Amino acid sequence: MPVHRASKTFFYHIPKCAGSSIEEQFGMRTIENLFLPEFDTVRHDEVRFSLQHLTPAAVDALYPEFSDFESFTLTRHPYAKCVSAYFWLRTKLDRKRFLFGFSEKDFQHWCRNVAVLHDIDHTLHQHHWCQGTDHVLDISQYDELIRMFEARMPRKEGPTVHGKRNPFDTKKVLASLSQASLDLIYSLYEADFDLLKYPRRHG
User: Which of the residues 69, 112, 137, 145 could staple to 8 if both were Cys, CB 3.0 to 4.6 A apart?
Assistant: First the structure.
């Protein structure tokens, strides 16, 4: 949830929803802007957060001085977001190397035993970031959000460098998932499908 004080702007960064690219383009990836890349730097309501991933409820509790700032966020279809979060968490936290590629059985096991807990910012329901946020856009509206931010704050000069690229093709993996896996994701994030109006049908 990096903040730009001069324009009174909050960007609520939902994990795996292109937030890092937004932050990089507008020079928001600094501790002064409430950005800290280390995992599990803040705990709120029994959820482990990186500082830049705090929800509006957490910000209201921890940083009430920003309560009148205008807020923005990007969301993503729960199917794609869950697959992307799986790769990120398994790679970064579990140090899994995926030497033999993607295993759907392993993914389903992770969903049932890790994602289901919703106790890490990357597995938390997206609607927690959307409640109380002024502008909620889908990741497909990325360019629109860029234009909105350009009207509020200066864009960083020079090329955008983003070093958190997922080495796996999320779209390809998603296309290969069985209906059982899709149903499992739906069961984990049914509220996001309903509240954020994402279709259950894939493709």
Answer: 69
Q: Kindly list the domain boundaries of the chain, sorted by start residue.
A: 3-195
The C-alpha atoms of residue 39 and residue 126 are separated, in whole angstroms, by: 18
The pTM assigned to this predicted structure is 0.93
Q: CB 111: neighbour CB atoms within 10 A? A: 19
